[in-house]
Inverse folding.
């Protein structure tokens, strides 16, 4: 008898356990999946190789956001740590690194980065792992998509290309030479440029795609000079830029063309390398950097910049970095994901993902918040929130893309940047297609 | 026509830098039968030594000479204490190549750890421009072409007109026979690695001057066209490497002039393969050189 009772007790306990487990794992129950310990925020970017600078730049918004979140007590008691995941800047090499990180990183619940050079391979991996992510890639192939965990707060490369053309024509440069490095990010701007220039009454004198890091671009420069362009629309890494401009200066009697390029070049590396070769006057007077626009006077921006300045890891690059769209979008993305976790009462990506859009949804009576702490406090008080961050009010479309406006900036003599003009998003998007 | 003339001029300038590096690479292989892939990282090392010295105010051309000496000594040490012992123990040539690849990667990442990934520059070293025959070249380019010519002539005289050069050639041709004739072949190897290391270091600085901007990958990037030039000229044949360098430089610039510049290297290497199909041993390669490479 004793044995039978014991067996019955075991079966009962097993049955109860199964029922509890079924309620916890199913979607229909009230219980939500839980985790213990700190959360991991993957920064998927190149940390080695020629594009390693991007890893450093994309780590900065992670440092700023997690500093503020952790200082506010974390997400429901969980501290967040930035985990560098090296995609090497190469789409093929990225796969084992990202797959390995997904398999081995504990509480991997959020990600940023996944830039243009590797997005084609890294985005599907992170999507399949059901980890919500805010990407900085500009690939046009993601303009329309059906991905569930994907979010982008900066425009596609084609829109950036149209913004280049818009700004060039606004400056009076109607006959431009387009020279892009042969990488997927740079070349993504071409369709937008080709579409926009004729609509703006401008023309393309010559269009060249050049390899990175050649010993000399003298022949390419000679071809450009022969077409007598008003300006150069340019996208390339700092080393390639330094070599090209050095050759241009040599072959054009010391005269360099005006340059319109992407805010991707708004980096200390670009500034230092190009200034050393062509001088500070040219860099501060004749280079315009076009990209996402955001108001740099809002409380949200001030909080972001203060956080960058406060941490020794990001202090030095804060003046420049805080003016660049993609890192700011990553910072906003982290805050949005963290607030969505509180809303969903879970840190598990597959469970809180549905609340991401609710965090930014405008609604009557919602408390507008521009940082994590304010959002957390409002949610704790039982209020509905509307996150309006550094990049302003996100407006995600059906593909989870939120484009926004465009701006042009110039370098200051100390390498920081000054806003010199803006372009409404609608104006630029009308130049496409 | 104007573009053709310009492309030839730029091709000669680019080819001179490639030739400098290719000659050193080829000389190393000729004397020791070792395909030294670490050569690329040693060029990078030289570029950063150059940066350090130029930032201290040292003249770029003095810097080139100093970096050459440092890399020359490093090359001798690398050969004497790592590669030569491996060869003596019967390590297969292919395994030695892998050792040089590994050493190159290690050196490259040590440079990255110390100097960082940022783009570096010596500043504008182009100097005064010279216009001749429809081409415009900077003073630094003219100087590098001149340096290449002088060094090639000096190397030619060394190899053909001096006892040391004849001993080096004898060592290159048949090491055992050279030893039996009383030649200190180990010393000849040291001299060859010192010379080729000097050329490697000088090329690293010349590349950094030419490109205006560089990072920790500069040596590896340019090693490929240099190996191509050496193979084209006939591996182990310094004179062939000179011509090979010029052919690679010219082909690359002409491709950039008349096709999509993004594919300039594809065209250049296509030409290289075509030439090798016609002359399998390279432009100046002897049969033994090819056999040794294949061994």
């Amino acid at each position: 008898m004793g044995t039978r009772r014991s067996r019955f007790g075991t079966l009962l306990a097993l049955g109860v356990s199964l029922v509890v487990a079924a309620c916890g794992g199913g979607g229909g129950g009230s219980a939500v999946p839980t985790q213990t310990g700190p959360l991991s925020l993957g920064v998927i970017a190149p940390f080695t190789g020629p594009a390693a600078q991007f890893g450093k730049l994309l780590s900065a918004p992670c440092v700023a956001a997690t500093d503020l979140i952790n200082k506010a007590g974390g997400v429901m008691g969980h501290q967040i740590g930035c985990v560098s995941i090296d995609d090497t800047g190469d789409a093929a090499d990225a796969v084992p690194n990202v797959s390995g990180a997904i398999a081995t990183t504990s509480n991997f619940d959020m990600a940023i980065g996944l830039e243009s050079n590797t997005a084609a391979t890294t985005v599907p991996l992170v999507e399949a792992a059901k980890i919500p992510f805010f990407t900085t890639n500009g690939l046009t192939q993601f303009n329309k998509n059906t991905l569930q965990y994907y979010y982008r707060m900066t425009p596609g490369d084609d829109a950036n290309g149209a913004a280049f053309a818009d700004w060039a024509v606004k400056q009076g440069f109607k006959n431009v030479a387009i020279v892009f490095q042969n990488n997927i990010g740079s070349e993504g701007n071409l369709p937008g440029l080709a579409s926009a220039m004729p609509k703006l009454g401008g023309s393309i004198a010559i269009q060249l795609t050049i390899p990175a890091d050649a010993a000399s671009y003298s022949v390419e420069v000679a071809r450009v000079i022969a077409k007598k362009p008003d300006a150069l629309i340019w996208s390339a890494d700092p080393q390639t830029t330094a070599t090209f401009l050095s050759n241009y200066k040599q072959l054009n009697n010391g005269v360099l063309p005006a340059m319109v390029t992407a805010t991707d070049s708004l980096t200390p590396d670009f500034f230092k390398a190009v200034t050393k070769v062509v001088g500070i006057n040219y860099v501060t007077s004749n280079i315009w950097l076009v990209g996402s626009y955001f108001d740099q006077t809002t409380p949200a921006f001030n909080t972001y910049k203060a956080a960058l300045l406060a941490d020794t890891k990001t202090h030095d690059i804060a003046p420049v970095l805080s003016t660049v769209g993609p890192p700011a979008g990553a910072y906003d993305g982290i805050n949005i994901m963290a607030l969505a976790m509180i809303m969903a009462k879970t840190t598990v990506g597959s469970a809180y993902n549905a609340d991401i859009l609710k965090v930014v949804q405008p609604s009557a009576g919602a408390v507008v918040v521009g940082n994590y702490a304010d959002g957390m406090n409002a949610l704790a008080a039982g209020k509905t929130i509307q996150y309006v961050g550094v990049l302003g009010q996100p407006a995600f479309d059906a593909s989870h893309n939120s484009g926004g406006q465009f701006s042009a900036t110039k370098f200051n003599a100390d390498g920081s940047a000054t806003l010199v003009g803006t372009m409404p998003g609608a104006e630029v998007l009308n130049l496409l297609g | 026509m104007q573009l053709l003339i310009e492309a030839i001029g730029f091709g000669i300038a680019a080819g001179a830098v490639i030739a400098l590096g290719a000659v050193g690479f080829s000389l190393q292989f000729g004397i020791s039968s070792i395909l030294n892939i670490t050569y690329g990282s040693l060029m990078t090392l030289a570029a950063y030594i150059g940066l350090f010295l130029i930032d201290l105010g040292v003249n770029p051309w003095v810097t080139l000479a100093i970096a050459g000496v440092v890399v020359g000594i490093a090359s001798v040490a690398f050969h004497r204490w790592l590669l030569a012992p491996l060869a003596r123990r019967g390590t297969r040539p292919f395994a030695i190549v892998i050792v040089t690849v590994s050493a190159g990667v290690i050196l490259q990442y040590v440079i990255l750890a110390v100097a960082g990934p940022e783009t570096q520059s010596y500043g504008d070293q182009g100097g005064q421009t010279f216009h001749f025959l429809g081409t415009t070249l900077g003073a630094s380019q003219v100087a590098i072409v001149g340096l290449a010519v002088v060094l090639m002539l000096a190397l030619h005289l060394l190899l053909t007109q001096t006892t040391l050069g004849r001993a080096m050639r004898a060592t290159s041709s048949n090491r055992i026979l050279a030893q039996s004739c009383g030649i200190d072949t180990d010393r000849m190897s040291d001299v060859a690695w010192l010379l080729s290391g000097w050329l490697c270091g000088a090329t690293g600085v010349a590349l950094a001057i030419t490109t205006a901007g560089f990072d920790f990958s500069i040596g590896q990037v340019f090693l490929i066209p240099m190996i191509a030039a050496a193979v084209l000229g006939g591996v182990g044949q310094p004179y062939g490497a000179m011509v090979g360098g010029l052919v690679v430089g010219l082909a690359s610039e002409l491709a950039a002039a008349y096709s999509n510049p993004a594919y300039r290297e594809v065209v250049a290497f296509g030409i290289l393969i075509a030439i090798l199909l016609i002359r399998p041993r390279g432009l100046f390669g002897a049969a033994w050189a090819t056999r040794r490479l294949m061994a």
Observations:
- The interface with chain B takes residues 48-50, 52-53, 56, 182, 208-211, 213-220, 222-223, 226, 237-243, 245-247, 249-251, 253, 268-270, 272-273, 276-279 of chain A (CB under 8 Å).
- The radius of gyration of chain A is 24 Å.
- The mean pLDDT of chain A is 89.
